[in-house]
Structure formats: C-alpha cells, structure tokens
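User: Could you go from structure to sequence for me? I need the amino acid at each position, not a summary. Structure tokens:
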C-alpha cells in the first residue's frame, strides 16, 4: 500500500464517528473531517460576542433568514464528513425536523470564527471551507481572529471555492448571492489584539 493511500484512509466509518460523538462529554465537541476525528475548542467569550455581532447584522439585513449556532453538517464528497459550523445561515424554518447532522441543502452560508488552538489553521482555514464547498454551500465566511480579517469564499466547484476575498476588520464586507448582506465590520476592531 502506498503512503498516499494510507494517508487518506479514514480513522473510522461515519457511523462509528456518530456513535462516538453521541457518547462524548458535553465539554467536548467532535468533528470528522477528511476521515479524521478532530476536537473543536469550546467557544470563548470573544467568540460568542463575534457570533452575536454577526447575528444582529443578519437579522437586520435579512429578517426572513436565521443564523443558527453550532450546527452539525454532513460535508465533503459523498457526505463522508461531519463538521460543526460555528453558524449556518438558512431560511426561517428550514431546519425543522432535521437531526444533529443534517444535509447542507438549504444552507446559504457556513460561518467559522477561529479559535485559539493548535489545529485552527488547518481546520478552519483549509479543511472546513473545502468540506463546505464539496457540500455545495454557496458562501463560507471565515472570521479570522489571528490576523483580524474576514475571508469570504464563494462559487463552490469540485470541492473548493473558486473565489475568495480577504478583508481587514473595519472594512465593509459584501456577502454575495444568495446571502446578499453588507457587513459593517468596524465593531470587530475591538477584538483585535
């Protein structure tokens, strides 16, 4: 067997991951990205404040949509991944009847807010946007606290986003179709270190 094949062999099946996740402590959040079990940091206070800022912006601009926190999504090719987005933007009522790990259809935007842990660079900046693109989510918004920027990914195709734009905290950020929201990111400057 070649090293490349071994590298891409999942640690377990999706079903085994879901069973493990169901029995995990409430203080741990698990994800299954690119065939690997990953531990996601529990949000700190600044993370929660940034989420609330975004929630307010979305509600004011598009009251017919809902920004749900900590949503489990089936991601990646053939829905073999399980990512817990920091937030998903969906039409009101579209999550009714869905389980903990739902299909990504109907999700207009996935949101990631970086955490201060050793895996955030690879997980939040590379792996999760790729999984969201493969799932067909039209827009991914990364709020990167490490370099005080927002990255807007859009135009998903073949497991990646064809377009991305990076803007600093304080800039006006235009979220493209089908989100169509303009964000005033000036308040995010207070989270810059």
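Assistant: Here is the amino acid at each position, in order:
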């Amino acid at each position: 067997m070649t090293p490349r094949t071994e590298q891409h062999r999942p640690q377990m099946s999706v079903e085994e991951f879901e069973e493990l996740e169901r029995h995990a402590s409430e203080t741990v959040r698990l994800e299954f990205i690119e065939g690997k079990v990953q531990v996601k940091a529990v949000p700190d206070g600044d993370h929660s404040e940034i989420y609330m800022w975004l929630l307010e912006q979305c509600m004011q601009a598009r009251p017919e949509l809902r920004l749900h926190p900590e949503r489990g999504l089936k991601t990646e090719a053939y829905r073999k991944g399980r990512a817990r987005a920091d937030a998903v933007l969906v039409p009101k009522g579209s999550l009714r009847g869905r389980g903990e790990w739902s299909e990504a259809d109907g999700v207009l935007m996935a949101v990631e807010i970086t955490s201060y842990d050793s895996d955030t660079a690879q997980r939040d900046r590379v792996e999760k946007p790729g999984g969201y693109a493969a799932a067909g989510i039209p827009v991914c918004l990364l709020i990167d606290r490490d370099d005080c920027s927002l990255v807007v990914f859009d135009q998903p195709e073949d497991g990646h986003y064809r377009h991305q734009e990076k803007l600093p905290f304080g800039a006006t950020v235009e979220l493209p179709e089908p989100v169509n929201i303009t964000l005033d990111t000036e308040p995010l400057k207070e989270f810059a270190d």
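One structural detail worth keeping in mind: The two ends are 47 Å apart (CA to CA).
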